[in-house]
Amino acid sequence: EVQLVESGGGLVQPGGSLRLSCAASGFIYTDYWMTWVRQAPGKGLEWVASVNQDGGEKHYVDSVKGRFTISRDNTKMSVSLQMNSLRAEDTAVYYCARAPGSYDYWGQGTLVTVSS
Amino acid sequence: DIQMTQSPSTLSASVGDRVTITCRASQSVGHWLAWYQQKPGQAPKLLIYKASSQEYAVPSRFRGSGSGTEFTLTISSLQPDDFATYYCHQYDSDSTFGGGTKVELK
To answer: Which residues of A touch B43 (CB under 8 A)?
Structure first.
């Protein structure tokens, strides 16, 4: 059974940093791109970042470029999102998803709140 | 960047109704279009990928169609479990979601 479990969310002050992690299991991890998608309270879905199978290709939405870094550890079957210089508008539930093109499996999400 | 415009943003319908949601892309995305269903407090669920391919175990009443810049999700006979928010998603060039369509009870 495919499982994705996010962790690392919480309350952080504006300008602060947070690192999210997503542990994957139940599939051949190195066969897939992985992605992060976020959803602000009461709002729609927003793609954040994606990483290819070996971690050598990364893509970001413009609003997080230079602040967020996606990475993966294939030995631990995990993907991470390092978030720096956080802003109030980064407040959201962050989901990791498996990405063979479309996003076929999603984690349950982890809430990040940026507030003083 | 490719923009995705969904309509309507809210749709009021009754059980048994045929429901159609439209998604337009600002430029061609070929067939690289997916549809998701999301219920409150839950992660999105993939329904349709590559514009018209049904994900495993998705009921046949959900049908996707279209290509290029115009796409449609049709629910042939709305069931009680279908009241939710639906999103389109292009994955031709990076990734963009539509704004969502909330299907509510009339």
So the answer is: 95, 106-109
